[in-house]
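Problem 12. The chain below contains 261 residues. Write out its predicted structure in token notation.
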Amino acid sequence: DMKKNGTMPEVSAADSFRQGALNLNTWILFIQYACCFGVELTMNNAAALYFREEFNQSTESAAAIASIFGWMNLFARGLGGFASDKLNAKMGMRGRLIAQTLFLAVEGGMVLIFANSSSLGGSIIIMVAFSVFVQAAEGSTYGIVPYVDPPATGSIAGIVGAGGNTGAVGFGLGFRQLSYKSAFIIMGCAILASSGLSVLIYIKGCSSLLCGSDDIEAKDTPLSIPEAEEDLALAATYTKSAPTKQANVYGGGDSDWEAEA
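Solution.
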């Protein structure tokens, strides 16, 4: 209906992908998603082995402990999106960027603490907190994605999502080649660095992390699709010129346009 009415421009899949891929914000979010969802995938693979080898747990116990990381997904990802929405309501896009930055920064710090934890109980507690911020960062990332370029949202979402798998491959190679502690430290530092990339995100019509302000119209209708002016003009012209049949009240059956003809 939106395309018929001229409120949504026709965009081919190729144009949409190109438009999304050429947007710098897309690749910043790609990196940040690699440092949250990529970390989640890595932990799903490495956590059980870590607890078995570093703390001499049985395979069953190590797997049970590692599963706690995934259980946080039941609420933490939604919590990240909720926090992003709440801060957006108060501060506009800057609020979303603040949430994104804080979640990633705390996540990175927790990884570094986890890497240096020597007790089983302490490691489990830190892992739980670490997991909450990992999932929350995933939610806050996709709180930003729809605003980057609304007509190309699908392509941007796909590219950003691929960042998670890319991050998992990269961090997985680290765990394969290095000791657990070294791999966790590298991962934590990468996450902290990605949190700083938020200062480079600038979305048209929205405030950035450090400066600018949200456009009033964009804030009121943040996800509106830009109107295709040419399509609207053609639609308006057609509406004015198109004949409208009206039944002859006298029963003749002739229409107004036939009479004019």
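Discussion. The chain is about 70% helix and 0% strand. Students who got a different answer should revisit the alignment rule from Section 12.3.
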